[in-house]
Design goal:
Order of helices and strands of chain B: EEEEEEEEEEE
Number of helices of chain B: 0
Largest sheet of chain A: 6 strands, mixed
Helix content of chain B: under 10%
Structural class of chain B: mainly beta
Largest sheet of chain B: 7 strands, mixed
Distance between the termini of chain B: 36 Å
Shape of chain A: globular
Number of strands of chain B: 11
Structural class of chain A: mainly beta
Order of helices and strands of chain A: EEEEEEEEEEE
Number of strands of chain A: 11
Oligomer: heterodimer
Chain lengths: 112, 114
């Protein structure tokens, strides 16, 4: 079946450093790629998304890049802060679809 | 605005018992979903309801049933709980016409089946 692979599973960085999380997807028809942040004891929350007609998108300290040919997409967090510590999920889906596939998650630790 | 509300937050069941997880959203969203989250496996779709009156299977529907009670409420039922159903369950909703783009999640139900 379709799947999304996410790496690394755990990432530890020093406050102020950058963090990068990478994902690959298998379904060539995927055209919508969201990223969700899950804090302890809470449900996932959408933080940024990108569509297949765009190669890069930025929102303050976070950015996403997409390489549709290689079926890779990545999340970049710059100037990390302790409040960025959380589990991050990448996902791949289709516009108007209902079966988004999620990656296994990356637990990010930002050390003060 | 409460967003997506799930009850209960925690539940312990014995094998073979049944229970219903409740979910309600106050954002007037058309579509609602049930996911389960297991360590190292991300979120997997159990069932979804594209609109009031419809329900469809997701990736892991076996052992579950759902009911879209009205536009606001979508429940998940375990008829005969098994230890393999120990998980954290999340309900989500999305706006009309968006499919499952921009999902809004509840805070989860932690279920243990002994």
């Amino acid at each position: 079946g379709e799947n999304v692979e996410q790496h690394p599973s755990t990432l530890s960085v020093q406050e102020g450093d950058s963090a990068v999380i990478k994902c690959t997807y298998s379904d060539s028809a995927s055209n919508y790629f969201p990223w969700y942040k899950q804090e302890l004891g809470k449900g996932p929350q959408l933080i940024i998304d990108i569509r297949s007609n765009v190669g890069e998108k930025k929102d303050q300290r976070i950015a996403v890049t997409l390489n549709k040919t290689a079926k890779h997409f990545s999340l970049h967090i710059t100037e990390t802060q302790p409040e960025d510590s959380a589990v991050y999920f990448c996902a791949a889906g289709r516009t108007g679809g209902f079966k988004t596939i999620f990656g296994a998650g990356t637990r990010l630790f930002v050390k003060a | 605005n409460a967003g997506v509300t799930q009850t209960p937050k925690f539940q312990v069941l014995k094998t073979g018992q049944s229970m219903t997880l409740q979910c309600a959203q106050d954002m007037n969203h058309n579509s609602m979903y049930w996911y389960r989250q297991d360590p190292g496996m991300g979120l997997r779709l159990i069932y979804y309801s594209a609109s009031e009156g419809t329900t469809d299977k997701g990736e892991v529907p076996n052992g579950y049933n759902v009911s879209r009670l009205n536009k606001r409420e979508f429940s998940l039922r375990l008829e005969s709980a098994a230890p393999s159903q120990t998980s954290v369950y999340f309900c989500a909703s999305s706006e009309a016409g968006q499919g499952d783009e921009k999902l809004f999640f509840g805070s989860g139900t932690q279920l243990s089946v002994l």
